[in-house]
Inverse folding.
């Protein structure tokens, strides 16, 4: 119920938005943010390409040149590796902006990740590792996930420092180098680097939150991420004795795998609700007057109404919010074009509803596939994620920043369907809130991890201002 | 791309009480000293991993060349022919001419290939590139496809030379280095290098052979005289992709999976030609009144009897002999574990009935795969349909004599259409008839492991094959 009340207060904020003109960037600040964004997008911080340490060093240099003491700017190299992602020497960046004297409260942690998902030149319209400005957008891998947030946090701190802002509590930055693959940086952050981070009271993650406008320019809403689904990978493996391809047989590893994938395509996990998603749908149903709103109202009234949940899940704006979802992301199979395959595998990526054990999902996948030839294994040992309680100060600061830049914009609590570095901190008792300020046109700009990733040009600069506003509210009072 | 020739005995025969002898336990007739020499060369050949892109095939060529050289073939008649197969795969063909001092006939060509299909150590029960002898078998990648044939043809020639045999025609040995991938060697061998290879006909060691069933009864010795056209196609699906936390109904992998299910269910139209009719006539005699025998007779009587053809095709021993067949062999897709796939691709390998154009098969595949799937032929290898080779009495009689010696009168010899493509197709396409007449044998289907796991050949089959080729050379060049 606490979440529900909090959500109501957020909606109240939405109606009480002030109309003061938002602050703007100076031309020099604008140019600096542009140059930084250009540089980091052009740095292909994909696992195996060894470029994340150089990006960390570059961002560290931005802080140092802006006057942050070198003793408080640390590039920390570390190794990341797993069987499915490959290995790399990567790096994290930790910057501590110290408050004067002895602060009364523990630091705020600002979080982001510098690495990006692979993007192939031949799958993209323009070179994904050359930032391209076109039609009011910046294109390139990482423009929305999430080098926009790296640049916004960095530039906002530089701007605040230049403006003479003195934080009343330490502001600590942790940018990791393997969020998209193994999350080792975040795990270290929540354990062995915790002293260096000053045992923060809570975290603000730029890899979550954000908002959007509908194609007709009406505000779709901003979300504050307080919970996230558990990321877990599984592998379907089919083995076969193989043979010569001139003599096909009924048993074929690739066909068995195709049938298993077909069953996964058709399967729907049990719909579920929690406090965050109930608060989210309470807010969303007020916006939706048509069939989608009716389905939300029905499902809120009766959580056992699977039909209503299915209808909501099928809506492009609500994908993944009503249940666990699993989807195949990669395929491998065979060893020669003229040989029957001895091995065929599919990677299944699952986003598991908070609180559900990933081992239970493995058992469920086995039941769905229902073929002893298809072996289901886990790719990782991630545990179920937990939600963070809503904090009035964070909610207020986020809502204030959003509505200063976007008057009338509704704000919702959100369960993120994507996993992020927040999980190990939440598990360690440090609540984390996804509060980035970038915005997109929904749903056409949902291109994180996909083809021709992009961000509206103005959203990059708005995000810098957004972080300045939030830091003034949360560390200036 | 050899397969061990396989077909079943009639059900009536299989109940015969007479116990047959395990052919693997019959002592080989190859003299002990030649067993030792053959085994040593075979071991060395198997332990060279002459897989594409590994740059090892030349070592096999040098191994074979050194046998010919030691037996007295002058260097001027031993030609190392380096060439590029798949882009970046530098390989070698070996051409050796054993000259006749008084040639009365046009040369005869002996074909083989030195490359092997990839074998993953993790998939096998033992290291595929360490030669093993166990329980009456030689094991390792290439033991049946087809370093056995390379070694048998080479050692038969070496043995004959040691006995002072002078061929009545030049015998040209042509061993290619990329039969399993692109066939560039055979393409060059049949065209650009034709002055070195021109011959009246060719004998291919990458096909033919006898087989026995599990009760050790002879199943037959097939001489391939025609072969299906090899063509690989790619089924590709594209999608904008996106974040895997937000699955969408359209998904490149699901689209591909649907096409693969359609492919699995698809059956091409049954077809016959003179070679396959000859084959099935022999099979119908063997099968007698078994269900398969009745199905074969029904189909021979009425080539439009699709149900009979389907029943024949469904028999594991007749796969691929009644029509074009296509099968999915490789898969790839996606670019990150946490991203929706932007591309998914299946490799579909087809064996096309002689006379059917690959572009017509492409159109049929495109129709079954649907508009979400792009179907294109592998640009690295465009199959060319080849004519069947006319039956030659001298070749058939030579093979019959050898089969009689090693397997007895119950081992029938007759024409077959090969379902696998081989280097022979390139020479057939350029006007040199080719007959697949290797003399190795195996137990069907247990020893049919070419391209698969734990490939093997009976020890006696390897040794007898040296004698088999010796007989063939004497009969056709004596």
């Amino acid at each position: 119920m606490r979440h529900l009340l909090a959500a109501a207060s957020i909606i109240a904020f939405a109606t009480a938005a002030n109309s003061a003109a938002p602050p703007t960037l100076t031309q020099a600040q604008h140019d600096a943010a542009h140059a930084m964004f250009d540089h980091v997008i052009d740095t292909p911080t994909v696992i195996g390409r060894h470029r994340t340490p150089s990006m960390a060093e570059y961002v560290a240099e931005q802080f140092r040149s802006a006057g942050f003491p070198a003793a408080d700017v640390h590039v920390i190299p570390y190794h990341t590796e797993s069987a499915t992602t490959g290995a790399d020497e990567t790096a994290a960046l930790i910057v501590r902006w110290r408050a004067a004297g002895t602060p009364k409260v523990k630091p705020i942690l600002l979080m982001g990740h510098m690495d990006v998902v692979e993007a192939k030149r031949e799958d993209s319209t323009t070179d994904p590792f050359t930032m391209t400005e076109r039609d009011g957008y910046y294109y390139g891998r990482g423009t929305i996930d999430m080098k926009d947030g790296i640049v916004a946090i960095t530039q906002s701190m530089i701007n605040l420092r230049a403006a003479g802002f003195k934080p009343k509590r330490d502001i600590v930055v942790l940018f990791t180098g393997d969020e998209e693959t193994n999350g080792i940086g975040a795990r270290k952050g929540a354990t062995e680097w915790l002293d260096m981070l000053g045992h923060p009271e809570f975290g603000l993650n730029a890899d979550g939150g954000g908002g959007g406008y509908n194609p007709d320019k009406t505000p779709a809403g901003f979300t504050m991420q307080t919970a996230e689904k558990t990321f877990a990978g599984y592998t379907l493996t089919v083995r076969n004795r193989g043979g010569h391809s001139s003599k096909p047989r009924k048993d074929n590893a690739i066909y068995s795998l195709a049938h298993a994938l077909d069953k996964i395509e058709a399967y729907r996990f049990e719909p579920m609700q929690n406090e965050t998603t109930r608060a989210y749908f309470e807010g969303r149903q007020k916006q939706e007057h048509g069939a989608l709103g009716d389905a939300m109202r029905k499902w809120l009234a009766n959580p056992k109404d699977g039909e209503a949940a299915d209808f909501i899940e099928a809506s492009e704006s609500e994908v993944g919010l009503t249940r666990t979802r699993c989807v195949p992301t990669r395929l491998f199979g065979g060893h020669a074009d003229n040989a029957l395959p001895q091995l065929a595998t599919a990677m299944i990526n699952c986003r598991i509803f908070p609180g559900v054990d990933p081992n239970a999902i493995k058992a469920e996948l086995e039941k769905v596939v229902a073929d002893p030839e298809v072996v289901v294994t886990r790719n990782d040992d991630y545990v179920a994620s937990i939600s963070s309680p809503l904090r009035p100060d964070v909610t207020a600061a986020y809502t204030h920043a959003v509505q200063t830049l976007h008057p009338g914009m509704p704000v919702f609590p959100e369960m993120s369907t994507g996993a992020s570095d927040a999980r190990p901190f939440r598990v360690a008792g440090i609540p984390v809130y996804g509060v980035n300020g970038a915005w997109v046109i929904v749903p056409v700009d949902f291109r994180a991890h996909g083809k021709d990733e992009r961000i509206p040009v103005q959203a990059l600069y708005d995000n810098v201002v957004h972080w300045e506003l939030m830091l003034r509210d949360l560390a200036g009072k | 791309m050899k397969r061990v020739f396989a077909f079943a005995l009639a059900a009536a025969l299989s109940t015969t009480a007479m116990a047959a002898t395990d052919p693997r336990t019959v002592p080989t007739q190859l003299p002990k000293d030649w067993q030792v020499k053959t085994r040593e060369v075979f071991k060395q050949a198997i332990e060279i991993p002459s897989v594409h892109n590994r740059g090892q095939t030349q070592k096999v060529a040098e191994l074979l060349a050194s046998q010919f050289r030691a037996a007295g073939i002058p260097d001027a008649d031993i030609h190392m022919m380096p060439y590029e197969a798949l882009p970046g795969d530098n390989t070698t063909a070996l051409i050796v001419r054993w000259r006749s001092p008084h040639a009365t006939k046009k040369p005869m060509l002996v074909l083989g290939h030195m490359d092997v299909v990839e074998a993953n150590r993790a998939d096998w029960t033992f290291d595929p590139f360490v030669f093993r002898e166990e329980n009456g078998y030689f094991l390792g990648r290439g033991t049946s496809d087809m370093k056995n044939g390379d070694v048998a043809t080479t050692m038969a020639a070496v043995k004959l030379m040691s006995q002072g045999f002078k061929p009545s025609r030049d015998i040209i040995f042509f061993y290619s280095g990329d039969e399993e991938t692109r066939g560039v060697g055979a393409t060059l061998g049949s065209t650009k290098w034709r002055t070195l290879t021109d011959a009246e006909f060719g004998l291919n060691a990458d096909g033919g052979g006898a087989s026995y069933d599990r009760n050790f009864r002879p199943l037959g010795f097939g001489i391939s005289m025609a072969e299906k056209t090899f063509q690989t196609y790619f089924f590709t699906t594209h999608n904008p992709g996106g974040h895997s936390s937000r699955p969408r109904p359209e998904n490149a992998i699901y689209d591909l999976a649907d096409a693969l299910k359609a492919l699995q269910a698809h059956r091409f139209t049954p077809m016959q030609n003179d070679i396959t009719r000859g084959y099935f006539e022999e099979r119908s005699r063997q099968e007698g009144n078994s269900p398969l025998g009745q199905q074969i007779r029904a189909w021979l009587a009425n080539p439009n009897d699709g149900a009979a053809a389907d029943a024949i095709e469904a028999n594991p021993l007749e796969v691929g002999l009644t029509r074009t067949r296509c099968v999915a062999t490789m898969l790839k897709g996606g670019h990150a574990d946490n991203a929706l796939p932007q591309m998914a691709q299946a490799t579909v390998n087809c064996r096309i009935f002689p006379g059917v154009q690959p572009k017509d098969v492409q159109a049929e595949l495109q129709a079954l795969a649907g508009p979400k799937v792009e179907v294109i032929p592998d640009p690295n290898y465009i199959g060319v349909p080849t004519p069947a080779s006319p039956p030659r009495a001298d070749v058939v009689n030579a093979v019959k004599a050898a089969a009689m010696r090693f397997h007895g009168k119950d081992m029938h010899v007759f024409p077959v259409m090969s379902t696998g493509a081989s280097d022979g197709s390139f020479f057939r396409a350029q006007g040199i008839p080719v007959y697949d007449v290797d003399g190795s044998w195996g137990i069907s289907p247990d020893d049919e492991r070419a391209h698969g796991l734990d490939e093997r050949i009976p020890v006696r089959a390897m040794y007898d094959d040296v004698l088999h080729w010796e007989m063939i050379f004497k009969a056709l060049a004596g």
User: Anything to note?
Assistant: The mean pLDDT of chain A is 92. The longest strand of chain A covers residues 86-97. The CA atoms of residues 240 and 342 of chain A lie 5 Å apart.
